[in-house]
Design a protein that fits this description.
Shape: globular
Order of helices and strands: EHEEHEH
CATH architecture: 2-Layer Sandwich
Number of domains: 1
Strand order of the largest sheet: 2-3-1-4
Radius of gyration: 14 Å
Structural class: alpha+beta
Number of helices: 3
CATH class: Alpha Beta
Helix content: 25-40%
Oligomer: single chain
């Protein structure tokens, strides 16, 4: 499982709403055009294909930033920011 920060810049309102809807099904919105998602390789590939079907490759910009455990521990947040990563739970 990889923790991804996914951001997008989509000027067309209809496409932007569709991109947000797709991403809402895969992670947490943390800013207007930024999502945090825990995805395995298969889900990441499926998400990329879904997004590719929706975007205009000449106008739209979507970026996937992977964060490993060390990166996540170094994340700095100001204000009301909060890391929206799902926590692993163990029942003993």
């Amino acid at each position: 499982m990889t923790f991804w920060v996914i951001s997008y810049d989509v000027p067309n309102n209809k496409r932007r709403r569709q991109i947000a809807k797709i991403l809402e099904g895969h992670g947490q919105r943390v800013q207007y055009s930024v999502f945090e998602c825990d995805l395995d390789e298969t889900k990441t590939s499926r998400l990329e294909l879904q997004l590719l079907r929706e975007i205009d490759e000449k106008e739209d910009d979507i970026r996937f930033y992977p964060l490993n455990r060390a990166d996540i521990e170094r994340v700095r947040m100001l204000g009301r920011a909060e890391l929206r990563r799902k926590q692993d739970y163990h029942i003993v």
